[in-house]
Design brief:
The structure is a homodimer of 561-residue chains. Chain A is an alpha/beta fold. Chain A folds into 2 domains: 250 residues, 4-Layer Sandwich (Nitrilase/N-carbamoyl-D-aminoacid amidohydrolase), CATH 3.60.110; 196 residues, 3-Layer(aba) Sandwich (Rossmann fold). The first copy, chain A, is 39% helix and 16% strand. Chain A has a 7-stranded mixed sheet with strand order 12-11-8-7-6-5-13. The interface between A and B is large, with 97 and 97 residues.
Chain lengths: 561, 561
């Protein structure tokens, strides 16, 4: 599914319905907002967009005519406002509509910007089996509609989601769902969106639990598929339907007429959860692949420096797109070491990607000649360092403009947090693959990928030598930044956990380091604002879940009392 | 006031209280979220930030001890959530707190991301005069708390706001407030924030209406000041306090002990509303001045091309900051006309700003030599055009890096809508002054400014010759874009009004033009995502009120039925 791709999404929906029918499936469930894609953001404010979404829904309804299958599909409903909705369709007719009740408006989510809160609590009796449908946040929210659906008496809970990936999310989600199944003693069917959409990756990881919280089926994460499962609405406890119904809010929708027919035997798929690093890597692959594919690019181009970041990005790109779609560009300067040159050539050879070598010296020289008289003698250092990065950015963009290639940037989260990157230089490009990876995780992933390859796909020297931008003689990252093993946990505590400087120091970190990181973080907001989007991997990325003012005069307030 | 500037905001609050006391003022009202500044965005998610805000509030409370004045001041309150709150303080004590009820979560606003909805409806009886306080959106919302406050019986409505400027907003706001005063037959006191904060400009325009909707006082827009006014709570109608009180929601807070004393006679200030173009220009001045000042820049640098956009930006900068703080840089290429050269020199002379002339030819040549073999013969045109723009961007950034100057970009809204700008080229910089001005308004403002100066501050030729980027021989904007008189209204109808292509065509626009603009708009989302912030002037700017996916496969859906 892709945002706005009404034609493509419709075709896919038809294919899946056809496939499900071959398994004699009674009920097929598609993810949250399947027809529009998720999140459609401000496209939702356009009437013509909403109308198109309703037109596609009509087509889907017509497509079900004469078929022996119930279809539950996410779309945008229109009433006295917009609703994040699920239509339950059978035999050419919408039998009922569910409206999402709990609208997330935190983190990357803006649902209260667009949607009205659902007020109905309808239960769908599909050939007698009472199904409580809910949408994403609805089942996370302990005060949401699900406990009330259970009290009204359901045999089965179905949650359709567009739940974006971050580290530990899949585990948190499964734990929550397992507890819901046990709490309410009903099977829980969880259907999640798959695919990359700008900075978000939806991991899928659809899963089914029985009333004891045992895994009945689990789809492969990061891969679109039809998960077919026989759910036994094994009712060991039934809530009193009077409690909910008494409030006059629960409406029961009956869907009859499904013929039972012959069902082929189903062997449920139960994929194992992925190990940690593989899971992160898969998220990066899917995010990259989908950004490239959905935006219609044929090739990507990456500036290779011989450092760990660009080496990992090139490896991810080659894995995601195939090496024939990746062009590496090595742009040495007077400060580039022989080691870097060797590393780049080796890497390109290992990955089997095309490599251009374009030394920037002549252009750098011409800039220095031109600007020499203008730049301040005292402080030309940073200007000259940034110039080199910007020449490289210009070269990559020129190739992009000439051939229509997408430039992948190579900066990591630690750099971006500290503003240790050049705006319009190494930050120039369309998509920032590892933007949300702390530097220490960059190393871990690179090592893991080598191990998986059974050889040094990324050359050993890249992994072992100290990181350097090579923009002045003998430069090292640690000249300006704390060591990454210190920087990364400080960043995590400040950005993700929201701890204060004092609290982080109390956790055992050096005060000077903590203040350095926080100061750098605050001073580089303007850079992050102009950074390209990249894949969210941590619980809080520098994207839609980081909305900081640039103009920010916050210094700790000192009371004079 | 500035976001996060607890120390500075506190000092200012004290000064205003002192000044108000000299006028024997009974009640001084500060704007919404005075202590934190508005909008604090995700700083609100930090506990240490909230704590600092409470610490400052305590200082303000202590400061009022022994003084004969009631202080109403905006801050963030903490309860079972965060509240956008107003503390009413007298003699070293918080007498009561009001929590904002109607939380805007549309346009540029994200208040439901941070705040819980207020539940209390307290009325403050200040020496017997019953005051209904509300915060910004509360008084816009016809279903908000204000009608209920009136039913509970108030003698006076006070609304404290942080209401950002856009064209026609001041008029709309005054109309609404005037109607509230008449509807409820009570005086309405409206106190609005002043100042620029990233892309927003708060225009102030504080105003007081009597119960007949007549203007009693009006402060100057775009200027911080204490507006002193004698409000006659001339009660010609009183609601029944039973209706509201019966619901158990209205709490009356009594503030006694104010001594009446001698009041000096007050002549109310009633400033005239500004004429349209002057109003827009003032907004741009304040937005520019405050971004520069609050971010600690000493000078700005602007690339001057001899075109209308950079000429207007330089004029605004010189007016906002003084010519001694503005550096113009003219960077001619092989395609730059003699006319442009003349125009730039004349403009710099007229404005009295410093001018650097740095021809880009040597660097451009060195790039062409370096990249010649790599660029596609067929499509090197765009690459070469963009290279010129990027060399200029690099030069400005080198000056910025070397001297700490802020680069002001010069692109307008029509260009940005159509992607008719070079990422990392003319889009490179920290603040985009006229980012939200349609090109036709750029011309209007330039003419207005010349008229006001009584001479051609911006040279005549700049206003009369056809716009051109001068990146290839004989280039004109109209080679690629519809004429701006057509483009601008199409853009307005699509972006601000949300009309569909068909609807715009029905308004009398050429279908080819409309499709061209809409296609360009969609294809350039990735550029806008990386654009610097700039001043919001129209009802919908390409900023926080434009949250569009980059990955967007929306094409009109064609039903096959």
């Amino acid at each position: 599914m892709a945002v706005g791709d009404f034609n493509g999404n419709y075709e896919k929906v038809k294919e899946f319905i056809d496939e499900a029918e071959r398994y004699s499936v009674d009920l097929i469930c598609f993810p949250e907002l399947t027809l529009t894609g998720y999140p459609p953001e401000d496209l939702l404010l356009r009437r013509d967009f909403i109308d198109d979404n309703l037109a596609v829904l009509n087509e889907v309804v017509a497509f079900t005519r004469g078929r022996n299958i119930v279809v539950a599909i996410g779309y945008v409903d229109v009433g006295d406002g917009l609703y994040n909705a699920l239509a339950v369709i059978y035999d050419g007719e919408i039998k009922g509509v569910y409206h999402k009740v709990s609208l997330p408006n935190y983190g990357v989510f803006d649902e209260k910007r667009y949607f009205s809160q659902g007020k109905r609590l309808n239960i769908f009796a599909i050939r007698g089996t009472k199904v409580g449908f809910s949408i994403c946040e609805d089942i996370w929210d302990p005060y949401g509609p699900v406990p009330r659906q259970v009290l009204a008496g359901v045999d089965l809970l179905v949650n359709v989601s567009a739940s974006p990936y971050h580290i530990s999310k899949i585990r948190l989600r499964e734990e929550m769902l397992r507890v819901r199944a046990r709490d309410f003693r009903v099977p829980v069917v969880y259907v999640n969106l798959i695919g990359g959409q700008d900075e978000l990756v939806f991991d899928g990881s659809s899963v089914v639990f029985d009333p004891k919280g045992r895994t009945v089926a689990r789809a492969k994460s990061f891969e679109e598929a039809l998960l077919v499962v026989d759910v036994e609405p094994n009712i060991i406890y039934k809530g009193s339907s009077q409690i909910g119904a008494a409030k006059g809010k629960v409406q029961e929708v009956s869907i009859e007429g499904l013929s039972i027919g012959e069902k082929p035997p189903i062997t449920p798929v139960i994929c194992e959860p992925l190990p940690f690093l593989e899971e992160v890597y898969q998220a990066l692959l899917l995010g990259t692949k989908d950004y490239v594919r959905k935006n219609g690019f044929n090739k990507v181009v990456i500036g290779l420096s011989g450092g760990i970041d660009s080496s990992l990005v090139a490896t991810i790109a080659a894995d995601a797109l195939g090496p024939e779609k990746v062009v590496g560009v090595f742009m040495p300067s007077r400060y580039t070491s022989e080691e870097s040159s060797q590393a780049v050539k080796q890497l390109a050879g290992n990955l089997g990607i095309e490599l251009y070598i374009i030394p920037i010296e002549p252009v750098f020289k011409s800039y220095l000649e031109l600007l020499g008289v203008y730049l301040s003698k005292a402080s030309s250092g940073v200007a000259e360092e940034n110039l080199q990065a910007r020449i490289r950015g210009n070269i990559l963009m020129a190739l992009s403009n000439s051939f229509g290639w997408l430039v992948l940037t190579t900066g990591n989260k630690s750099e971006l947090a500290c503003g240790y990157a050049t705006l319009y230089g190494d930050m120039a490009g369309g998509f920032a693959v590892i933007k949300d990876l702390p530097k220490t995780l960059v190393y871990e992933l690179a090592r893991w990928r080598n191990k998986k390859a059974g050889r040094d796909l990324i050359p050993q020297i890249v992994l072992t030598r100290p990181p350097s931008a090579e923009l002045r003689p003998g430069q090292k990252d640690t000249d300006d930044l704390p060591p990454y093993e210190v920087l990364d946990p400080i960043m995590e505590l400040y950005v993700e956990e929201g701890l204060s400087i004092e609290e982080i120091v109390k956790e055992g970190f050096d005060k000077g380091y903590v203040e350095n990181v926080v100061q750098r973080l605050k001073n580089s907001e303007y850079k992050r604002r102009q950074a390209p989007p990249g894949i969210k991997v941590t619980p809080r990325a520098f994207g839609k879940d980081w909305r900081m003012p640039i103009t920010n005069r916050w210094r700790p307030f000192v009371t004079k009392m």
